[in-house]
Amino acid sequence: MQIPQVDRGLSNRGGSTTGYFIRDIEGSVLTLMAAFVIVALPIVAHIVHPLLGILTVLLLATICAIVAPGVAIVTILASFMFQNLVVSLVSNWVHSKAEFDVIRAYNFLILCTCWLTIAIRFLMNWRTKPGNIVIFLKVTTAALTAIGVYFVVGFVLYGTAAIVNLRNIAMPLLLFQICLVVFAERTVRITPALTGLGISVIFCAIIEVLFRDQWLNYTNSEKYWTLFNGPNWVTLQLDEQARKTGEVITTLTDTFRISFFNSPLLSDIGVPVMRIFGPNMHAISFAYCLIMFAIFTLYRGRLLQATVFIALAVLCSVKGPVIVFLMVAISWSIYCIIGSRLAFVFHSIAVVAYAVVGVIVGSRIGDYHVLGLMSGFYNFFENPIGRGIGIGGNLSPLFNTIDFQQAQAVGHTPFPVESSVGVLLYQMGIFALAPIGAYVWLSWKLLKLGSITQNGLHVAMAFTLLSIVANGLFQEEAYFAPLSLTSFLALGGMIIGAGVREGMTG
User: How confident is the prediction along the chain (506 residues), in pLDDT tens digits per residue?
Assistant: First the structure.
């Protein structure tokens, strides 16, 4: 894999191509080894003592961000993809749900530690930095400031629930700033390591598809999911599902089986699908990860790699990422014919049409994503200032109390769920436009950069970000899952950062 304007490829280098290839392989192996050590070691240390785990992650992440910031970026992405696999492997030594949640938050601690370290180093020498980086930092910092204010309000009102929600909301912009600054300051050879991550993701997904029982057994997944959901004798979640649907869950894999793309519009097809959850143990987030790699490879001409990622994404049976991929493919094809600006206009119109049709159709069939979005709108008009970060959403302790039949009757849920936009409006009110507006603006800046570089990946990333913004209407994971918006903004930060370094920012 190769990031345009960052890694110019083997063909543009002097000397032996074979020599550079071997050097890339060695470098990627060392980078991935370092990344996996930084991800896994603090979790193992936590088993010995929680304080040791926290100190380990702070120390390793700080050193990595100072010595090898490119490796830090790979480490953050690797933590999003593989940390939960490590947690699952050691879950026999995790004794409570609270401890389980703390360990799973280590990836956010890695991200925050790297961000703080890189931010301090940047501010210490800010006069020597490229001037055209400032506007990107101002816009994204303004959005983070709005998020921070509402976090303080939420923490006062809702306690630790605000911290969990802050992680989900702030991650995309924090990682974008890390990638922006690192790639603006230096040439970073990160592509081979990303290739290694992609191969690792493919390997895990194929093993899960072909040998699911063995995969679940050797990764200790039964214990992981028990900690994640809570034992059924306490939650009665499976009993409630049996009462509502008539489906009796007897094994873990029964919970993985859904109708095709989990949509009432496709339920008549009668094709049950066994979802892939991946090493991050989350089907929706993993599907976005696969589509990220698919877009990254396809628009750089790696058709075979992209085909594998797309096929695996379909097996996850998640609508949102597949819709994003299709919208980007159509708009990119139009871009090849009429140019970037007109294609972006077309794409914007298509995104608006998708949003409108989605709301209309979803309201008619009682889709719970649209019901959650409508709740966001209703509550926004009741309180346009917002209620603080930490209330509402799928993570709310009141989520399981929602009567969706009642919600279908009245046209909305009691509070926003299953919609990133709905939850942000509920929590931040009118100031939800700060992060959402930043995402749209970054999409536009990527397009302008693409019109200068004539690089298809740059334009495709612009289309992708705008599509994910629209997906946030109907999917809470679109903004909040670590491998969805966050991973795409990471690529966007790399591309824009390289453009800043070379004097091309659009």
Answer: 334 333 333 334 444 566 666 887 888 899 999 999 999 999 999 999 999 999 999 999 999 999 999 999 999 999 999 999 999 999 999 988 889 999 999 999 999 999 999 999 999 887 777 778 999 999 999 999 999 999 999 999 999 899 989 999 999 999 999 999 999 988 888 888 999 999 999 999 999 999 998 999 999 988 999 898 864 434 445 545 545 555 545 567 777 777 665 666 555 555 677 888 999 999 999 999 999 999 999 998 889 999 999 999 999 888 899 999 999 999 999 998 888 788 889 999 999 999 999 999 988 888 889 999 999 999 999 999 999 999 998 888 888 888 888 888 888 999 999 999 999 999 999 999 999 999 999 999 999 998 888 888 999 999 999 999 999 999 999 999 989 999 999 999 999 999 998 887 76
User: What contacts 219, CB < 8 A, 6 or more positions away?
Assistant: 85, 88, 89
CA-CA distance, 278 to 429, in Å (whole number)? 35
Q: Residue 481 region, left (φ>0) first, then alpha (ψ -120 to 50), else beta?
A: beta
Q: What is the DSSP letter of 393?
A: S
- H-helix or E-strand spanning residue 259: strand 257-259
Q: Where are the alpha helices (DSSP H) in 50-159?
A: 50-67, 69-89, 97-104, 106-124, 134-158
- CA-CA distance, 53 to 76, in Å (whole number)? 17
Closest CA to 190 of 17, 73, 30: 73
- Phi and psi at residue 15, to the nearest 5°: 85, -165
CA atoms of 17 and 36, how far apart (whole Å)? 28
From the number of C-beta atoms within 10 Å of its C-beta (0-12, 13-18, 19+), residue 354 rates as middle
Contacts 24+ apart (CB under 8 A), 45-51: 46/102, 46/103, 46/106, 47/90, 47/93, 47/94, 50/99, 50/102
Query: Which of 112, 111, 80, 147 has the alpha carbon at shortest distance from 437?
Result: 147
**Three-state DSSP class for 272?**
strand
**What values do phi and psi take at 258, rounded to 5?**
-135, 170
Tokens standing for 433? 């436009």
In which residue are the tokens 């939850």 written?
423
Token digits of residue 28? 């990627």
**Rounded CA gap, 210 and 452, in Å?**
45
| Residue 449 near residue 495, CB atoms below 8 Å | yes
Token pair recorded at residue 222: 């039964």
**Residue 367 zone, left/alpha/beta (φ > 0; ψ -120 to 50; rest):** beta
Question: Letter for the amino acid at 87?
Answer: V
| Nearest alpha-carbon partner for 262 in 409, 367, 396 | 367
What string of DSSP letters covers 322-342? HHHHHHHHHHHHHHHHH-HHH
